[in-house]
């Protein structure tokens, strides 16, 4: 998807979790206190989300300082936590991105009962910003 936009002169931001995969830093987006796995605690989950927003803020601030980045051609998209982050961030920082794409994203999975509270809350953060965008998509991935 990112290549599609890049080939047309857009910059595509695809957030990845800090400390996961090949990214640096310590992971801290909602682990249980003993570090054994994800926490289902609402406060821990929201704090992890806010940390991820701070990371995207840092990237966006860097992009704003670059003369080779067309500020009118920025899109953001992601999968899982990156997907819900893309939608929510776009609403929280309206006017930053022209498009936002979520591929099967949610902050908490169905194994955590508070997902019914946390995920809608975070999607609501994106609702107002998406109203002013060219495109704002949330795409579920079929398990079949």
List the defining traits of the structure above.
144 residues; alpha/beta; 4-stranded parallel β-sheet
How would you describe this structure to a colleague?
This protein is α/β, with parallel strands linked by helices. The protein has helices spanning 2-6, 42-64, 81-92, 115-130, and strands at 11-13, 74-79, 99-103, 135-139. The chain has a four-stranded parallel beta sheet with strand order 1-2-3-4. β1 (11-13), α2 and β2 (74-79) form a beta-alpha-beta unit. α3 packs across α4 (115-130). It is globular. The mean pLDDT is 84.
Seen as an oligomer or otherwise, the chain set is single chain
Radius of gyration (Å): 15 Å
Unreliable parts? none
Q: Bin the strand percentage.
A: 5-15%
Instruction: Estimate the global geometry from the Cα principal axes.
Output: globular
N-to-C SSE series? Answer: HEHEHEHE
> Which sequence of strands runs across the widest sheet?
1-2-3-4
Counting DSSP E segments of at least 2 residues, the number of strands comes to 4
Average pLDDT, all residues: 84
Instruction: Profile the largest sheet.
Output: 4 strands, parallel
Provide a quick synopsis of the model.
By secondary structure, this protein is α/β, with parallel strands linked by helices.
């Amino acid at each position: 998807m990112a290549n599609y936009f890049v080939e047309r002169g857009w910059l595509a931001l695809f957030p990845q979790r800090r400390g996961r995969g090949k990214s640096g830093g310590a992971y801290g987006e909602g682990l249980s206190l003993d570090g054994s796995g994800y926490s289902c605690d609402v406060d821990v989950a929201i704090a992890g989300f806010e940390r991820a927003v701070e990371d995207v803020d840092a990237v966006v601030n860097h992009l704003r300082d670059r003369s080779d980045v067309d500020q009118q051609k920025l899109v953001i998209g992601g999968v899982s936590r990156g997907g819900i982050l893309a939608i929510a961030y776009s609403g929280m920082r309206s006017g930053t991105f022209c498009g936002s794409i979520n591929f099967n994203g949610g902050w908490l999975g169905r194994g955590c009962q508070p997902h019914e509270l946390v995920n809608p809350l975070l999607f609501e953060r994106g609702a107002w910003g998406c109203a002013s965008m060219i495109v704002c998509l949330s795409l579920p991935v079929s398990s079949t």
